[in-house]
Amino acid sequence: MRSSKQLVTLESKAVVNLENVTQTSYGEDANLNGALATTLRRDPDLIMVDRVSDPKSAQMLTDAASRKNVLVGMQAGDSFSALGRWIKLCGQNAQAVACLKGILCQMLVRKLCPTCREAYKPDPQFLAKANLPAGKNQNFYRPPTQPLVDDKGNPYTCPTCKGNGTSGGSAFSSCWK
Q1: pTM, rounded to two decimals
Q2: 20 to 30 A Cα–Cα from 127, which one of 68, 110, 119, 140?
Q3: Are 110 and 166 in contact (CB under 8 A)?
């Protein structure tokens, strides 16, 4: 089933082929302005840009955002840092936030390896600072503090995490509106 909206991405290099999405690769950051101008002339319903590095592109995107939906990717440690970088790129505070609907900051949180993680009882002072009840016998987990050994006392590497203490990850998002 085809989408009734025209979706366009502007990427320095297309990483994944997206079905029913017009993907435009602009290469170097200097080529983004031209690719953005060409895209805006096509009048898409939604524009997604992987990153913006110059004020002229930011200006074009804020102008376009008053008429259509625009998603901009930006690397930042948290939502407020991303907002600060966007305002700095745009140059004018009022114009930068006029069409802003929200900021989403996503981070990868590593999971401890379920095979070799080590259970421990946390310090009661830590529990008090974290506002957790001290009376419950809850185990906390951490990466192994000692080398892993088999039944014969020979050291070995965890087959699940290959000795780094983590396996996989989980996305964690924070949002500011």
Answers
A1: 0.61
A2: 110
A3: yes
Structure tokens at 128: 């008090």
Given the DSSP bridges, would you call strands 7-11 and 22-25 parallel, antiparallel or unpaired?
A: parallel
- What are the structural domains, with CATH classification, of the chain? 7-101 (3.40.50.300), 109-176 (no CATH)
- Three-class secondary structure of residue 93 per DSSP: helix
**Mean pLDDT across 79-108:** 86
Q: What is the separation of C-alpha 141 from the centre of its chain, rounded to a whole number of angstroms? A: 25
d(CA 10, CA 24): 5
The answer to whether the CB of 177 falls within 8 A of the CB of 104 is no
DSSP string, 143-168: S-SS--B-TTS-B---TTTTTSSEEE
pLDDT digits 0-9 by tens, 126-155: 888 888 877 766 788 988 988 898 889 899
Q: Scanning the structure block, which residue is given the tokens 């990427």?
A: 11
